Amino acid sequence: MKYNIGDHIITKKKHVCGSDEWEVLRTGAEIKIKCIKCSREIMVFKTELDKKIKPPKE
Q1: Is 31 among the domain residues?
Q2: Could you give the angle at the alpha carbon of 22 between the alpha carbons of 20 and 26, nearest 5°?
């Protein structure tokens, strides 16, 4: 999947704070995402993130 800065993604599992919505902050080999609810930022390899998100609705 292709990620763009500012995209909102939904993960299969919820974050510790209870939110499953994230915003993409940085792209590359690693993707930096920020939790919408608690503003925690993490870096995840693109291949790992592809497995952890819900597919977009079409």
Answers
A1: yes
A2: 155
Q: What is the pTM of this model?
A: 0.85
Helix (H, G, I), strand (E, B) or coil at 31: strand
Each residue's pLDDT tens digit, 19-44: 999 999 999 999 999 999 999 999 99
**pLDDT at residue 58 greater than cutoff 70:** no
H/E element, 49: helix 46-52
| Token pair in block for residue 58 | 């079409």
Paired tokens of 29:
């080999």
| Structural domain count, the chain | 1
- Name beta bridge partners: 44: 31
Domain that holds residue 12: 8-52
Sign of CA dihedral 36, 12, 9, 51: positive
